[in-house]
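Message: A physicist's question: would you kindly supply an amino acid chain plus fold tokens?
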Amino acid sequence: MTQELPSADIGLIQRIIPHRYPFLLVDKVIDIDGIKSATGIKNVTMNEPHFQGHFPSKPIMPGVTIVEAMAQTAAIMVGTALNMMDKEMLVYFMAIDKCKFRKMVVPGDVLYMKLVTTRGKAGAKVWKFCGVAEVSGEMVCEAEFTAMMDLPTG
């Protein structure tokens, strides 16, 4: 059963995916178009633990966390559309393809993750997504990835 919610705030996000500090990397998801597309927002702050070591004199958000934020956005989009609130949905990476990093992401940036579903439908376990992350309208990362959605039944 799908439903149409155009956005997900932090409260709803926490009802869909199990991630919590320090690994919850999405603050809000907007422009949710069912299972087709969505945009996640991450406010990057110096308070995040990875900046202690990456790098102490020049804090840069690790690329893997940018890709993870994109994947969390996709999971929130699917979870919102498929009414997975409070159902303990889990999502696992299966593949990351064509991943490229274009610019550094630093504290103070607002990261926009724009995701499009390229394969997946209600009831499917394996989904594919294409995503672009931007700061101030400039691409900082792009990737395609495949994920397995562990959707509870019943």
